């Protein structure tokens, strides 16, 4: 998707939200990440109306986030599986869960484990290997005609 064709600031976040920003889309992705590949499992665990879920799953397949593959031991049924693009969303979903634990719920309903302890991610720079503090980051606007404040007159 060409970010220049989007409404407002040209930004990959806008393009990303067009693909996965719908509530049912992200919940369906969560379910597939948890190993639930059948439509009925995804519908039950998301609470999504089946017509909306069907449309979202179709959109996610068309966008290359999910793919349909035969389920093991079943020649007639296909399940939903993450593509490389879908697997790249794991960190995003994990961070949304972490944020939700802190700001959206009163008690943690689920947690991500690493060996026998709760997983606590740290961000490191791939170029230099340093652990990154949020205060050290800055955004460089490279879209023509835009700066951090908005469109350049």
UniProtKB/TrEMBL annotation:
Q: Does the keyword Ubl conjugation apply?
A: no
Asked whether the keyword Transcription is assigned, the reply is yes
Q: Which organism is it from?
A: Streptomyces mangrovisoli
Q: Name one Pfam family in it.
A: HxlR
* Official protein name in the record: Transcriptional regulator
Cite the entry's keywords alphabetically.
Answer: DNA-binding, Transcription, Transcription regulation
Under the heading PROSITE patterns, the entry gives: HTH_HXLR
Q: Which domain of life is it from?
A: Bacteria
């Amino acid at each position: 998707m060409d970010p220049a064709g989007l409404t407002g600031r040209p930004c990959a976040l806008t393009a990303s939200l067009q693909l996965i920003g719908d509530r049912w889309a992200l919940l369906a992705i969560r379910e597939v990440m948890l190993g639930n590949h059948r439509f009925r499992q995804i519908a039950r665990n998301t609470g999504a109306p089946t017509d909306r879920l069907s449309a979202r799953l179709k959109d996610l397949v068309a966008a290359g986030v999910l793919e349909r593959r035969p389920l093991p031991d079943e020649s007639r049924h296909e399940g939903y599986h993450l593509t490389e693009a879908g697997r790249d969303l794991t960190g995003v979903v994990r961070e949304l869960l972490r944020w939700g634990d802190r700001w959206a719920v009163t008690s943690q309903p689920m947690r991500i484990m690493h060996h026998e302890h709760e997983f606590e991610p740290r961000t490191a720079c791939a170029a230099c290997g340093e652990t990154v503090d949020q205060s050290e980051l800055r955004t460089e606007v490279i879209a023509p005609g835009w700066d951090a404040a908005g469109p350049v007159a």
